[in-house]
Design brief:
The complex is a heterotrimer. Chain A is mainly alpha-helical. Helix content of chain A is 73%, strand content 3%. Chain A has a two-stranded antiparallel sheet with strand order 1-2. Chain C has a domain of 174 residues: MetI-like fold (Orthogonal Bundle). The chains are: A mainly alpha, B alpha+beta, C mainly alpha.
């Protein structure tokens, strides 16, 4: 073999540091469209005004105003409680689906078909999908029609209004967000581990709780995070379809629409802190890195 | 004969905790079949990857054919490697796998075709060109990997545990083939293994490694008959080891105190050891005699037979002597007598057959008894 | 068949029903002649799809194929989603390739990328608005695509990293020992072995950005993407079967796209 140049060429040098160079594009995007905007929210939340010239007059007023306002408990409860409830409903509906898909649907073809089937409605426009509940659950929808003609109720139920609307729309919007990571985690379980538990005389419910579920927990946690922060950041559903349920997200949008920038920034900061806190707690329970490394 | 490979004080750290190579210095002659043996985690695989250039070393020198390899990327080195688990490219068939290196070297099509055919014939896989790696058996994959590494005709071929993932029969077959191929092509082969049998039967030169350091380098029979350290003795071949203290010398004959009583040894080149020194007293199982034959030996011990293992061409007996000391004795099958478990027999061996080893291992600060009885 | 399998079948069917129920109603009501989106259906018509406009209707009563804004929004959506898909697949691939190796601060970086999804959409939207305001940047479709990429990258990253062959690095080493230069290693080994994941990342980027409303709404000016346009129309104007017609068209296109994708997949898998 001829060995003309045994030293490192340019390509070799680039290759040697490739791991750092490869990080560069992603990091630039993060910096410009995540880290800078985030630090701006936090920064501006401590000022009185935000004009074209920049923020003016440092203050803690925004936070004090929020935490002393009479609506604060309701807003926090709506934000936190409704998002969490949406998570649980999604979990109850989604996890068995993922479980059955992995362990009960044996043929790969059938599994692929079902997953595709799940996907199609999610490609339909989100707002149309929400509105499509109207003929079912709306004031003159079939549920109310049926109940009223059976004489069970006299006045139509407001199913698509207020909190119940959130609990129908959110789970149906974010169901895939729960199924997808759970499915991923379940497929990563070595079947021999489950077989080992069975051989060691564990009854079916213990096999499930102590082995299958435990091992799929990173996926479940990931699903919870997905659904929770999606619901947390959604101000449109509360505003449009739930008739103005007061959540933090909606308040941010309202104050921003009225150009009360610093107060909107303070509420946003609180929202981000809540998201990070929940993330932290969930990560204490399970390390989601197990899903990927 | 020139040197294919020279290393000087190679050091490799994994993070700040693990010292994988601790000043490793050795040479390999061109054309040698060089076998590195050691337990898993001893650094042999790391060493191979450093030679191949897929790992960097932290300090020291590495020369291949006399050229310094600092900052020379893998693909510019005159080496080739068969990786553990073979790493056959799953998206290419057998022909493309073997042809890969030749294509990278820019050879022309007809030449590649000819050389791949030859290489596959050499490893006994002619006719399987169109198969995908997943459609091959373990033994076939191993051979494709070997052909792929060989076909680019490197001056050094590195083989990382090539024998470890196939069954015993295939191991034997591949060992024979490797030796024959080495004789035919004449390149330098460097092979790692954790199985002593492979090392002893394949190698021109054996290097015993122990967590980052070299214990001994030498011809297989040298290492077997004259282990430099207790570790090397334990790792190459079966051996009985007793912790001993030198009592006195009577000319060439050395008297020692051990846990099974006074033993004699007649070690070559070890006359300088002073009385009172702690050493390891070693005797190979095949040198120990049982019953009538033992009566004529210099060392005699009464011991109880506690178990035995049948290996086909020989039988290994395990005796217990003194307090809790096990002594292994191997006897060729045709010479096996009628021994009963639990009975006591006389064991004996000649002082000439005993070895004295004063060094526990090349890692500093370990007590000799720890190494004799430890792990 | 055990009771477990039967339960599984029933459950899967129920979930599919739950997801498809509104879709069935959407399709049925898109052919309804009246303007109210409720039963009973007085007559069937294709008016909501193709009826030429008189020029005097409110936008909610213009058939979908003649709604100019709908097609502007569709164009915007295609642009945003295609750019997002390309950016996502590029950034996910480079990042995943970098993060699979042991590098300083790998965990921190991983969580930083995940943060792109964790930060609630409304907060990020506000932050970007601030940034644009302070630096005097005009919002554009490209900016929307960039913000959506921050949101789609975590999904692609998780999927790609969890699907990487643990042996990938070994194949690369094997190739470089066999005299392949770093460029050849990437072109002949790495890329062919991860191409499926790369395409998946692009698809994820496309689909997620297609449906995204919250971030887009905050940053977008003008007609916006399809998702924000329809959302705004539905929130300002009366809800008519026109939008169910739009949904039905999207469903048909999505179904055909998925079928083509499934066909390609099944040929690949063999």
């Amino acid at each position: 073999m001829s060995a003309p140049q045994l030293k490192m060429g340019l390509i070799d040098r680039v290759a040697k540091y490739s791991r750092y160079l490869l990080l560069l594009p992603g990091f630039v995007l993060l910096l410009l469209f995540l880290l800078i905007p985030l630090s701006m929210i936090v920064g501006i939340s401590f000022f009185e005004r935000f004009t074209i010239a920049g923020p003016e007059t440092f203050t803690l007023k925004n936070y004090i105003a929020f935490f002393t306002s009479p609506q604060m408990p309701t807003i926090l409860l709506n934000t936190f409680g409704m998002s969490l409830l949406a998570c649980f409903i999604s979990f109850v509906l989604g996890y068995p689906m993922a479980y059955f898909l992995v362990f009960r649907v044996k043929s790969a073809r059938a599994r692929f078909f079902i997953v595709s089937l799940l996907l199609v409605p999610f490609l339909i426009d989100w707002s149309v999908r929400v509105v499509a509940w109207l003929p079912i659950l709306g004031e003159s929808g079939i549920i109310n029609y049926a109940l009223m003609s059976l004489g069970v109720i006299k006045e139509p139920l407001e199913l698509l209004f207020g909190r119940s609307a959130l609990l129908i729309i959110w789970p149906q919007t974010y169901l895939l967000w729960m199924i997808f990571p759970s499915y991923l985690a379940l497929t990563r379980i070595d079947p021999d581990i489950i077989n080992a538990a069975k051989v060691l005389k564990a009854p079916p419910h213990r096999v499930f709780l102590d082995v299958t579920f435990r091992l799929s927990l990173p996926g479940v946690v990931m699903g919870f995070i997905f659904v929770f922060v999606s619901a947390l950041g959604d101000y449109i559903t509360p505003a449009l379809w739930a008739g103005g349920i007061q959540t933090l997200g909606l308040s941010v949008a309202n104050y921003a629409a009225n150009f009360v920038w610093p107060y909107a920034a303070a509420l946003s900061t609180i929202l981000v802190v809540i998201a990070l806190l929940v993330l932290y707690v969930l990560l204490k329970v399970v390390d989601i890195k197990k899903l990927v490394y | 004969m020139g040197k294919a490979l020279e290393t000087k004080e190679l050091v490799k750290w994994y993070g700040k905790e693990v010292l994988a190579l601790n000043k490793v210095t050795f040479d390999v002659d061109a054309g040698d079949f060089f076998v590195i043996i050691g337990p898993s985690g001893c650094g042999k695989s790391t060493l191979l990857k450093i030679i191949a250039g897929i790992l960097d070393y932290d300090s020291g020198k590495l020369y291949i054919n006399g050229v310094d390899m600092k900052n020379v990327p893998s693909y510019k080195r005159d080496v080739s490697m068969m990786l553990e688990n073979y790493a056959l490219f799953p998206h290419m068939n057998v022909f493309d796998n073997v042809a890969f290196g030749l294509r990278m070297l820019g050879k022309d099509k007809s030449e590649i075709e000819k050389e791949v055919k030859e290489a596959l014939k050499l490893v006994g896989l002619a006719g399987l060109e169109k198969r995908m790696p997943l459609e091959l058996s373990g033994g076939q994959r191993q051979r494709v990997a070997l052909a792929r590494a060989l076909v680019i005709n490197p001056s050094i071929l590195l083989l990382d545990e090539p024998l470890s993932h196939v069954d015993y029969r295939l191991q034997r077959k591949l060992m024979e083939d490797l030796k024959e191929i080495h004789r035919k092509v004449g390149n330098t082969f460097i092979l790692t293994t954790h199985v002593q049998e492979h090392a002893l039967s394949l190698a021109d030169t054996v290097m015993v490694m122990n967590t980052g350091v070299i214990e001994q380098i030498g011809k297989p029979e040298e290492v077997y008959n004259n282990p430099a350290t207790v570790f090397a003795a334990r790792f190459v071949g079966e051996i009985n080891l007793f912790s001993a203290q030198i009592k006195s010398w009577d000319g060439e004959l050395c008297y020692l105190n051990t846990e099974i009583g006074e033993l004699k040894a007649n070690p070559k080149n070890k006359n300088a050891l002073p009385s009172g020194d702690k050493v390891a007293y070693a005797v190979r199982p095949e040198r120990v005699k049982i019953g009538e034959e033992a009566r004529l030996c210099d060392n005699k011990i009464e011991a109880k037979l506690v178990s035995y293992y049948y290996f086909g061409h020989y039988m290994e007996y395990v005796f217990q002597a003194g307090g809790n000391t096990k002594i292994k004795v191997s006897v060729p099958t045709e010479k096996v007598g009628n021994l009963t478990l639990g009975s006591t027999y006389l064991l004996g061996w000649s002082a000439k057959d005993a070895l004295l080893i004063e060094k526990p291992c090349m890692i500093e600060g370990l007590d000799i008894e720890e190494v004799i009885y430890g792990k | 068949m055990g009771w477990g399998d039967r339960l599984a079948k029933v459950y899967i069917a129920l979930i599919i029903l739950f997801i498809y129920l509104p879709v069935f109603f959407m399709i049925a009501l898109s052919f309804k002649s009246g303007a109210k989106v409720s039963f009973p259906i007085e007559g069937l018509t294709l008016d909501w799809y193709i009826k030429p406009p008189t020029g005097y209707e409110y936008s909610a009563y213009i058939s979908i194929m003649h709604d100019k804004n709908f097609f502007t929004a569709l164009n915007n959506s295609l642009f945003v989603s295609i750019v997002t898909a390309l950016l996502t697949c590029l950034l996910v691939t480079t990042t995943a390739l970098a993060l699979r190796k042991r590098i300083v601060g790998r965990d921190l970086l991983f969580y930083l990328f995940i943060l792109g999804f964790i930060v609630p959409g409304v907060a990020l939207g506000l932050g970007v608005t601030f940034m644009f305001r302070l630096f005097g940047i005009e919002s554009s479709l490209l900016a929307v695509a960039a913000i959506l990429t921050v949101y789609t990258v975590p999904f692609g990253l998780i999927l790609m990293m969890s699907r990487f062959d643990p042996e990938l690095a070994t194949y690369e080493y094997a190739a470089s020992v066999l005299k392949a230069s770093p460029l050849s290693v990437f072109r002949r080994i790495t890329l062919p072995l991860i191409i499926f994941e790369v395409i998946s990342a692009a698809i994820i980027g496309f689909l997620l950005s297609w449906g995204e409303v919250i971030r887009t709404q905050f940053v977008m000016k003008g007609t916006g993407t399809l998702a924000t346009y329809i959302k705004n129309e539905l929130s300002i104007n009366p809800i008519t079967p026109k939008w169910f017609a739009a949904g039905t068209i999207i469903a048909i296109v999505a179904f055909i796209g998925l079928a083509i994708f499934a066909y390609i997949m099944s040929r690949r898998v063999r």
